[in-house]
């Protein structure tokens, strides 16, 4: 397994680190982004934890390539704000259309270079979707007709079996969000694109472990890792990853 650190948008004030992790043989490419919004904490911690697991050989990429951008929007993260403008509305919406921000342009160029089979965008939201369908906390989101939908449904079912409190269960959402990284990857790169939204009303440690567990499911499905321990039997078990 080979791990390389590189810089995204390195000639600009938006520069940020990303990592390319290659297995020993060819396979699918998975791209994971976090920190698109600077006021969301657990997704950044999750991406950093995944990197530590790889660097410490706790988790190994057997085949294929994993790209991780732990903090996309460094400027927004330093100020702990969502971002002005909202970066997740600035990605290209049509073929040959330019992104509306230098950082989303750089990130999309990176995705276009690697052509990921799976594009995973980690986020957080308030509330619980099982209690209030209008909120996005505890959801996995894919575009309608996406090839990611079967796995999204499978992961939600797996996660919910390990969560005792039904009000904090995950939901599946199928929706377009023009200008988002997910929809750009789905429409323009034909990636199986998923947005992960844990609820910021839960403890940080629980949110991080949910996101890590979801990522492990996706990496396993994509063939990058072999993981036989994907589903816990209790909510407390989910917090031990």
Written account of the structure:
InterPro entries: AstE_AspA_cat, N-alpha-Ac-DABA_deacetylase. Its cofactor is Zn(2+). It contains seven helices and eight strands, in the order E-E-E-H-E-H-H-E-E-H-E-H-E-H-H. With 241 residues, the protein is α/β, with parallel strands linked by helices. The chain has one domain: Zn peptidases (Aminopeptidase), CATH 3.40.630.10. Strands 1-2-4-3-5-8-6-7 form an eight-stranded mixed sheet, sandwiched between helices.
What CATH architecture do you see? 3-Layer(aba) Sandwich
Sheet of most strands? 8 strands, mixed
Whole-number count of domains: 1
Enter the CATH topology name. Aminopeptidase
Order of helices and strands: EEEHEHHEEHEHEHH
Instruction: Output the number of helix runs.
Output: 7
CA-based shape: globular
Q: Just give the CATH class.
A: Alpha Beta
Give me the side-by-side strand order of the main sheet: 1-2-4-3-5-8-6-7
Mean pLDDT: 94
Structural class: alpha/beta
Distance between the termini: 22 Å
Number of extended strands: 8
Cα gyration radius (Å): 17 Å
Instruction: Report the CATH superfamily.
Output: Zn peptidases
Summarize the amount of helix as a percent range.
Answer: 25-40%
Percentage beta strand: 15-25%
Organism: Gordoniibacillus kamchatkensis
Domain Succinylglutamate desuccinylase/Aspartoacylase catalytic: 27-139
Pfam family, one: AstE_AspA_cat
InterPro entries: AstE_AspA_cat (IPR055438), N-alpha-Ac-DABA_deacetylase (IPR053138)
Blueprint (SSEs and pairs):
Layout: E1 2-8, E2 16-22, E3 25-33, H1 42-55, E4 63-69, H2 74-79, H3 102-114, E5 118-125, E6 139-142, H4 149-161, E7 171-174, H5 181-188, E8 192-199, H6 204-222, H7 235-238
Parallel strand pairs: 3-4, 3-5, 5-8, 6-7
Antiparallel strand pairs: 1-2, 2-4, 6-8
Helix pairs in contact: 1-6
